[in-house]
Amino acid sequence: MSLFGLKFGKKKLREEERKLQANNRDFNLQFEYANNSIKTSKYNFFTFLPLNLFEQFQRIANAYFLFLLILQLIPQISSLAWFTTVVPLVLVLAVSGVKDAIDDFNRHKSDKHVNNRPVQVLINGMLKDEKWMNVQVGDIIKLENNNFVTADLLLLSSSEPHSLTYIETAELDGETNLKVKQALTVTAELGEDLQKLTEFNGEVKCEAPNNKLDKFTGTLILRGEKYALDNEKMLLRGCIIRNTEWCFGLVIYAGPDTKLMQNSGKTTFKRTSIDRLMNVLVLLIFAFLALMCLSLAIGNGIWECDKGYYFQVYLPWAEGVNSASYSGFLMFWSYVIILNTVVPISLYVSVEIIRLGNSFYIDWDRKMYYPPKDTPAQARTTTLNEELGQIEYIFSDKTGTLTQNIMCFNKCSINGKSYGDVYDMSGQRLEINEKTEKVDFSYNQLADPKFAFYDHSLVEAVKLSDVPTHRFFRLLSLCHTVMPEEKKEGNLVYQAQSPDEGALVTAARNFGFVFRARTPETITVVEMGETKVYKLLAILDFNNVRKRMSVIVRSPEGDLTLYCKGADTILYELLHSSCDSLKEETTEHLNEFAGEGLRTLVVAYKNLDEEYFQDWIRRHHEASTALEGREDKLSELYEEIEKDLMLLGATAIEDKLQDGVPQTIETLARANIKIWVLTGDKQETAMNIGYSCNLLNDDMDDVFIIEGSTSDDILNELRDARKKMKPDSFLDSNEINIQFEKSSKKPKILPDEQANGVYGLVITGHSLAYALEENLELELVRTACMCKVVICCRVTPLQKAQVVELVKKYKKAVTLAIGDGANDVSMIKTAHIGVGISGQEGMQAVLSSDFSFAQFRYLQRLLLVHGRWSYIRMCKFLKYFFYKNFAFTLVHFWYGFFSGFSAQTVYDEWFITLYNLVYTSLPVLGMSLFDQDVDDRWSLLFPQLYVPGQQNLYFNKMVFFKCMFQGIYSSLILFFIPYGAMYNTVRSDGKAIADYQSFALMVQTCLLIVVSVQIGLDTSYWTVVNQFFIWGSLSVYFAITFTMYSDGMYLIFTASFPFIGTARNTLSQPNVWLAIFLSITLCVLPVVGFRFLKTQLRPTPSDKVLLKIKEAKKRPPPPSPRRRLRRTSTRRSGYAFAHQHGFGALIMSGRNMRPKSPFATTGTFSPNSDKHKHKGL
């Protein structure tokens, strides 16, 4: 049973192995496996109040105020009414409780949305619509095309031949290319026969739930036979079914046991560094309070012993007090109550209001609104705003976060000529934008209407039947593993296993070489309106070592040709010597393409001799059926035939970045923020994006690639990199080496180390697994943190979180993680700040995030504008708040020396109650909600202004002590100037005003005007609201004071308002106002002088930037034209190709072929016919 969120009763044993039976809920229920509902909320209706109060009283200040309230209920020591504490305490708990309830209600709402998704479950021989949360382990469910996978399933059967199922795993690993899963033959026979599926009673034994996305081991026992199960037969929760009409699966893991949820990490309670600092400061203030109370208690004991003992007739001791020491003891607690305002509870109410207000600014910011998707920015957590102004490390996903998940054929080089750029009449290259005229493909009835190209000369070359150009596009239409789908005549849809291939085949299609259909033995292409069928004789498959793929085809004319595409560094070694001059021209174009961050491939061909090919294909068959060394034998044969190739040219594909990504990254780098990219993509792709978005560039001294396969290799690679960046970091005298040699259980913080240049680091997921081990993690973080940019590729979701955790462990820095998919959830939860992009990969990341928006470029505005403003406002608020409360409270301390240490208050009780809640609350809230040192435009133009937040310069222990001493100084002035002015003073009519009530009124009036002037000095940005709050608060003070001290109030509530007539008698005297003016001058003058001299003599970097802005405002610069960031490159290869090994063999086997489409049959459709022939051709 669950009570207050705690589990009682039998503890569930750790699962070692999972055992389940299909269609047998009774059998599976005995193991108490989790059902498919997920829960991210913290409370329910019954547990909210106790759990929330328990959490709130873990905050030291709240527990302290509860303790004070108890003290105030003891008559012997209570010097203030109970309502002075209980009202603000209840208000604080209520405000925080309501906010927590709203946050948790939203979590309940999102959980409900996911748990109530419909799915078809096989129950008693029928398919019934069930909610996701009711699905259990052992159930058989049916999924259809474009459905999200409900749980982790064993694939049983599908609509495709051989029970293949195509899935998109973007939510798991960030890759958008399709992957293929295949059911066991024994279950594939079940098809969609509900009777057979109902009778299926297979038993599965498999590993316990874990977070390894690429690994699954299990056994299916059916009719006494055992069948091995692996990851290729599993459909994981979070995947999307693509290109498959239907499939059936058996639930293996559900809900929290699924690999997606196992990778999502724990939800932690996030608190800002200022919150943590405030806890420390509150403890220091408590110590200071105890010291003051002890001093006053000792003073009381001495005074009562020395003086009070002899005046008991005039000042009798309280009932029960029989000694001076006991009187001192009671006075200690009385002073604890009086002086508690050094940490007023209204501080926490104000902090919550400020954070809430600054959160609304993010929600309302139109410049962070994305119209195409109607998506505004959203502050999903309201307690972390000021931390946005202190970020040092950003951990970003790549796919969908930096990129759009869209590949576009951008440029190409054919026979030494570059295509893709647009030139004006004078030969100057133009920048392509929305207004640039697109190529008209209307002559091609089968063209893809979404395809855009701007260089008209390429179309002209195609129309003029330029031989190399035709051969180039023929190669692109034949050399691939794309599957075509044509449900309506002429409406072709390509299902590409890699997005790059889809872009290349689409380009060939638009330029008149339309890949139309394929069988295991043929490829049908419509070439310039004429349908041709090529015989597919072999696919020489891609892998990460070969970095190329080839096809061997026989044309309708009987010509044998090998077409090949791959990385330039590989293919250049395979070219015929006659291609040398063409190779030089193509290399120039490749460098240019790579310089623009495009993904490049080189394409080549070779005409084959019939006799040689027959011999080669015989040997190929022998090698492909060999039991030993099959891969090596095939590789040798591939190398043999892929020689003396003839170069055709190169392709350049743009992995489209989100708008403004390079500019955003450049701006964030100028703000001294380090960016690490953590992606599930392969190394080449990740590096290519690194160059295209200006993370990596050729001006860097070096980019280290860590790809060792053992711990020792990786250690050596990391040390070699560190040695190059900072040779003296290996010296025994190095401070960090000395610090980490000392054995200590206390967590050690790694200081910042400066490298001798600008470096980048790239590490693969396999190597990262070793590097994250305890013996290597320090070396990894030392080396990586010296680099300007770190790219981790092929990483699992859990590794992303581990990298973030590593930096948090060793660096005293605030981290931010940003991503858009379920594979980013764990790092979003682990980082201090999690940002979700509502992109193309579902809403998992957004639901787990603290802030969300639609485009990566909004991150600079979130940090440099909203984050910086929130941080500055919070720091100003805290400095002012502590100052005004020290000034307010310590007057009591000085008064104690003149009142026999009797715990009498200086001020009227009503002033004490209203000081923080009414008189001084609105001006400081006005400053904390509206203040800004510079506006948003200058904040983005001068990112250097962000640096003080990273270094925590605006509020730290030193700043706190300065505020404390300023408060002590002000309290001395505020007590002794009025005291001296009142001492033995008479009014103009000769009557005395040197009484307690007049003194109290004068002190509190001085205090209020001084703190109002101080808030005016602290305000940088004046608005009508600020003016109204400051003048309004002073007006309210005088209005309330004159009302409460009036004759009428005294007559109605005699006991509550004893200060009858004090206001009109005291404040009508000129000498009183002169003393008030003197107090204000003495309090404010040192502050103004110190600030002026500091700015002039020792300006901070921020002061210098602000001075520049001040000068620039006098002569505003013309708006800089928006430019596209380009870089020149000497890098030879921009190769990147997201392809999966083994797909070629699948195509040649025909296992993934569907029954032929009526439109795909050879010769049934020809754009060359009269019906479709274009008049212009």
TrEMBL record:
Biased amino acid composition, Polar residues: 1159-1168
Segments of skewed composition (Basic residues): 1111-1130
Domain of life: Eukaryota
Catalytic activity: ATP + H2O + phospholipidSide 1 = ADP + phosphate + phospholipidSide 2
Catalytic center residues: D397 (4-aspartylphosphate intermediate)
Keywords assigned by UniProt, alphabetized: ATP-binding, Lipid transport, Magnesium, Membrane, Metal-binding, Nucleotide-binding, Translocase, Transmembrane, Transmembrane helix, Transport
Region (Disordered): 1108-1132, 1157-1177
Alphabetized GO MF terms: ATP binding; ATP hydrolysis activity; magnesium ion binding; phosphatidylcholine flippase activity
Keyword Translocase found: yes
Cellular compartments annotated: Endomembrane system; Membrane
Domain P-type ATPase N-terminal intervals: 21-86
Mode of membrane association: Multi-pass membrane protein
EC supergroup of this enzyme: translocase
Family as reported in the entry's similarity comment: Belongs to the cation transport ATPase (P-type) (TC 3.A.3) family. Type IV subfamily.
NCBIfam families according to UniProt: ATPase-Plipid (TIGR01652), ATPase_P-type (TIGR01494)
Protein name according to UniProt: Phospholipid-transporting ATPase
Source organism of this protein record: Nestor notabilis
